[in-house]
Amino acid sequence: MVTKNQIKLVVSLKQKKYRSQHGLFVVEGEKVVNELLKAGVRPFKIFVDDADKVQKFREAEMVPKKDLKQMSSLTHPNGILGVFYMIEGEGNLNPDWVVVLDSVRDPGNLGTIIRLCDWFGIKYLVCSKDTVDCYNPKVLQATMGSIARVNIAYVDLEEYLGKTNLPVYGAYMDGESVYSSDLAEKGILVMGNEANGISDEVGKFIAKRISIPQFGSLSTESLNVATATAILLSEIRRG
Amino acid sequence: MVTKNQIKLVVSLKQKKYRSQHGLFVVEGEKVVNELLKAGVRPFKIFVDDADKVQKFREAEMVPKKDLKQMSSLTHPNGILGVFYMIEGEGNLNPDWVVVLDSVRDPGNLGTIIRLCDWFGIKYLVCSKDTVDCYNPKVLQATMGSIARVNIAYVDLEEYLGKTNLPVYGAYMDGESVYSSDLAEKGILVMGNEANGISDEVGKFIAKRISIPQFGSLSTESLNVATATAILLSEIRRG
């Protein structure tokens, strides 16, 4: 059973404003619901449209297909919709490296970067306030359970970078080759916006500009921010 | 002016079968049309829906908005549609490294991998016949002009790998760490399917299995094939 008010609540969660207000977010699909449960994220409600799935998910409630369709963001709902409580970050970690995103706008890129942070054991991801919301459904589709294992904060970057004692590295097209850079044991890696790179305001806090050297034709476009993050985190961890 | 037959031709190019038959492919949007022209890809027709754009593209023909909408694959056509001749590969390059894709299905992944090959100066990309078509519109949107600078072939991988003299490396979850692997001067790097990795048939030809070590929680999903390719190509080139 799902009440009209519950449907209204779930629909409202498509907007960031209501996600923040209620402290809830929505994912769709068996795989991602499973990943979040496995990662220990607390479910608020899980709605499914057939009896088999009720067997699989103890918490699930069966609802008519038409109600699920009403709640879904998908043109073709896939039979399972989970509403979860937002993840509370661990407060007192002592991180070695922190990734900072300056205005990353594409949900797929943010999703991939969260998964990369998880892979490379980066515990903190700090985002500018205009970076895409990490509870956006497309971000969640790309991160899967990784979102539960990386602490993500949205802050004023100038304030944050003004206070840190860690060395601040930034990815630029014209920086020093990361292959020959001497990376510190601990630090902050700043990645910029898809079209414009790191903003001038944030750039003031960067102590060292690093680059990924290009081996092909000079007319090649710059690397995508997610693939560049992959390579730089690999360089940080490979030692 | 665009004739009914031309509209029919452009619409038919949404299907791979007709793209191969006519040796033509379609892209939409000013940026990608520009990139292809800059990269020297030969245009067959460029259709635009306003006079300003005719100024910008010498080859452009102005057509009514409703005709452009009919030819477009987009819900909201963006005012420019280019039909280009397929790119002919250079035959006699002597490549150092070749990337081989075994059944990569996601257009965004293939697009990103083509752009990475271009960045890292990889001249040959060899794909299994069931890898997504490189002239698929979503692939082209992700590669931009890079498609003109990487030679892409669709072949029977078992036949291809059976004949090569280059050492064959494959990306696996349980291979030797790429950070400590001694990579040859020249070689072939095989990347597998998004869900299943490298198939058993192709696996028989792999001389050395390599992996990207994981630093985070063990429950993390594997890296996406495009980000894994980014890291491995960086390792190959960093020396």
TrEMBL record, chains A, B:
Q: Mind telling me which SUPFAM superfamilies this protein's record contains?
A: alpha/beta knot, L30e-like
GO process annotations (BP): methylation; RNA processing
Instruction: Please give the InterPro entries that the UniProt record associates with this protein.
Output: Alpha/beta_knot_MTases, MRM3-like_sub_bind, Ribosomal_eL30-like_sf, rRNA_Methyltransferase, SpoU_MeTrfase, SpoU_subst-bd, tRNA_m1G_MTases_N
Q: List the Gene Ontology MF annotations in alphabetical order.
A: RNA binding; RNA methyltransferase activity
Is Transferase among the key words of this record? yes
Report keywords, A-Z: Methyltransferase, Transferase
RNA 2-O ribose methyltransferase substrate binding domain: residues covered? 26-90
What GO CC terms are in its UniProt record? cytoplasm
Q: Which family does it belong to?
A: Belongs to the class IV-like SAM-binding methyltransferase superfamily. RNA methyltransferase TrmH family.
Q: What is this protein called?
A: RNA methyltransferase
Source organism (scientific name): Flagellimonas lutimaris
